[in-house]
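Hey, I'm writing a tutorial for new members on how sequence and structure tokens pair up, and I'd like a real worked example in the thread rather than a made-up one. If someone can provide the structure for the chain below, I'll link this post from the tutorial.
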Amino acid sequence: MIRSAALREHVRALLTARQAHATFEDAVANLDPSARGVRPEDLPYSVWELVEHLRRAQRDILDYCRDPDYEAGDWPDDYWPAAPAPSGDTTWADSVGQVQQDRDAMVALVMDEGRDLYDTVPSHDEHTYLRQALLVADHNAYHIGQIVAVRRSLGAWPPDNT
């Protein structure tokens, strides 16, 4: 039981805490709205594209963990936005909020002591809840790093937290 609790806490921290990398909240903090859809000359994506991709992919993995009738979307159309910029402040805020909400839902899934993290998800007979939580953490860390890289290219990193 103690090892299970420790594992759950490690995965929770991997999903949410500032450790060896920036958090999602760090990466999107205080970004000027005019910079959200800018693709730097040396990079093929904007902060918006990365945030929206995180939202879509993370939600897909969460659905994969919950829905026995899960069906994957069409790659890449269902996993990346068509436009480099959000349509407005509300779209941006909704996407950022949904990333946080779905991440927190994944954390709740991991922290649920009634769930065996080594059990397979209902939609697959080999992939475990633990595998999927680690996949979310890995995928998010990768793209959060890309958000930081885009912001650096735009001269918008580190965020002004004053």
